[in-house]
Amino acid sequence: MDSYDDMNRALITDDVDSQCVDMLIANGFLVEKDITLAKQSQEQLIKKVQEVDILIVRSATKVTSAVIEGSPRLKLIGRAGTGTDNIDTEAATRHGILVMNTPGGNTLSAAEHTCTLICSLARAIPSACASLKSGAWHRSEFMGEELNGKTLAIVGLGKIGREVAKRMQSFNMKTIGYDPFITAEQCLTFGVEFFELKDLWPLADYITVHVPYMEGTHYLINDEVLSLCKRGVKLINVARGGIIDENALLDALNSGQSSGAALDVFEQEPPANLKLIQHPLVICTPHLGASTREAQKRVAIDLAQQIIDFKQGHSLIGV
Ligand code: NAD
Ligand code: MLT
C-alpha cells in the first residue's frame, strides 16, 4: 500500500460547508475550493485535479474514469454525502484511490424532506399556495386526503427508509416495505411489514424509494411496476434519479394510474424532462434532501475528520 504521509493538497469542487476547509487547514492540509469546476469541461477539471492528492465533492461533480485516469497524483476522493453514484468507484479501486462517503450525516434531513413531500402531496400544499398567491380563492379545487390509515410502501429499508417509516407511523400510516438485505423479523422491530416487491406494489397508496442508484435499481419503478400498483398511487423519490423511469411516471400521471408524484432527484440534473416537472400533479424540489444547515455541517465535519484520521493512520468509517 502507498504511503499517505505526504498527502496534503485538497481540492473541493462542490458546495461543501466551510467547516470542512477549516478543519483540514487546521490539520496542515492545503485546501483550494472552486465550485465552478463542477460545471466546467472534464479537461479543465482534470487539469486541476492533477495538482492534488484529495478531491472533495458532493453530487454535482462527475468523477468519471477519465478524471481518475488523468490524475495520477490523486489518492483519495471524499464525498460529503451518502450516494457515490457520481464517482466511478471501480476506476478508483483499479487505480488504488480510496473513496470515502459520510454515511448517516444527512439521514435525518433526507427523511424529513421525504415526509414533508408526502404531507404536501396529500394536501396539494404547493399548488394551493401558488393559487392563493396568484389572487385566487379556490377552496374546492384543493380537496386533499388524510394520511391516516393509508399504506406507505418503503423500498429500501436502510438508514433513511427506517427514519421515514418511524415518522409516518405517527400519522397512523401502515408502513410496509422491501429490502433484499433485511429480514421480515428485523422489519417488525421498526414497525414495517415485509413484502416481496410483487406483493408490495398492489397494496400501496404511497410508494417511497430509498435505495442507492446502481445497475440493480435502475428503473426499479417502470411501466410494468406502475401497472401492478393501485390506481391513483402516489410516488416519492428523494433517493436518486433513474430509480423511477420518468417517462413511465409521466404516462401513469396522464392516465390517472398515478395521482401524484414528489420528486427531489432526476435522471438528469437540472432536469431535462420538463413535461414531468411541470405536470400539475408533480411536486418537485431541486435535490434538496440533504440541504439543511445541520446536515451540511455534519457531513463536512465527518468528512474532514475521516480524512484527518486516514492520514494519521486511525481506523475509518464510510470507506
Ligand atoms: P443505506 O445504505 O442506509 O440504505 C439503502 C438500503 O437500500 C440498504 O438497506 C440496501 O440493502 C437497500 N437496497 C439495495 N438494493 C435494493 C433493492 N434493489 N431493493 C430494495 N432495497 C435495496 O442508504 P441511505 O442512507 O438510506 O440512503 C439511500 C440513498 O438515498 C442513497 O444511496 C442516496 O443516493 C440517496 N440520498 C439522497 C439524498 C438527497 O439529497 N435527495 C440525501 C441522502 C441520500
Ligand atoms: C447524498 O447522496 O448524500 C445526496 O445526494 C445529498 C447531497 O449530496 O446533497
From TrEMBL:
Keywords assigned by UniProt, alphabetized: Acetylation, NAD, Oxidoreductase, Phosphoprotein
Top-level taxon in the UniProt lineage: Eukaryota
One Gene Ontology molecular-function label: phosphoglycerate dehydrogenase activity
Residue stretches making up the D-isomer specific 2-hydroxyacid dehydrogenase NAD-binding domain: 116-289
Annotated ranges, domain D-isomer specific 2-hydroxyacid dehydrogenase catalytic: 11-319
Recorded family membership: Belongs to the D-isomer specific 2-hydroxyacid dehydrogenase family.
Subunit structure: Homotetramer.
Protein name: D-3-phosphoglycerate dehydrogenase
Organism encoding this protein: Rotaria magnacalcarata
